[in-house]
Amino acid sequence: MMHRYLAVVTGLAVVASATASTVVMRVNGVGITDYALGRTRRALATIQPGQTADEQAILRQAVDQVIGHVLLTAAAREAGVTVDAAEVQRRVAAVRSRYKSAEEFAQALAAGGTSEAEMTGYEEENLLIQRYTETVLAARAAVTKEEAAAYYREHPEEFDHPEQVRVRMILASVPADATKDVEDQARARIAQAVERLGGGEDFAKVAADLSDDPTRSRGGEVGWVRRGQLLPELDQAVFKLEAGASTTPIKTKHGYHVMGAIERRPAGRSSYEEVETNLLGMLKSLKVRDLLGQEVAGRRARATIETLDPAIKAALKP
Fold it and tell me: Is the pTM higher than 0.85?
């Protein structure tokens, strides 16, 4: 059951609590429409590729998610959580920017059976739940180092790793539709990077100055990788490097790369010290997930749920 309620969080961005369509159920008086439920059903179907759709199971999951959304929104408001209206508008603006004009955006919303006002409403609700999770629930999900150390001792196999290389990268980006001039400029920039590295400059400094990749803010560091994680042409080159060495420019679909190996390690088991920070974060996330499930389950047990559609009523049966 806990895993079912976890879906409440992962599905938040696709749930609206009210639209102009037909109300098919109510949760504590809050109407849920056929549009909101249908949107969630479609999203659930798309994340199960290659499987034969079990329409009844998908409907049940969708109903669970929209109910959970209403209940968590109420929990957030009762806890006094608020969101910045400007942040809500930024989210809506980000969606709007994908369209060529305001008219095209409005047409797309109308075709989907919703409106910008409704979109703004559920973006606000999504943010409320996110803030509630990050503040109220996270504050109740403290994890001690003793708990993390105990988990490490009890699940040692989870910390085994294959051969790995800790890598960094400089990227001169070449968009798919780039002109010859743009590609020539990228090629010249990566050549400049190679020249500076060959002259003894620090990789991190060169990456910060010349790389287009977001990793430039941390000196180009990508982190530990295993075979198969990188693009094939990068993967082959990286695993031939000795620690401290760099590649010549490598062309990929993203542009021109120079890869560097910071250090290598053979297959083995990560020490507790290496994984402590990530392990503390993982265990905290698990506690938050459990608290979310408990919150929804407790509120649902007390909720008044009215179904106005026979198919939904059937889906809610145990």
Answer: no
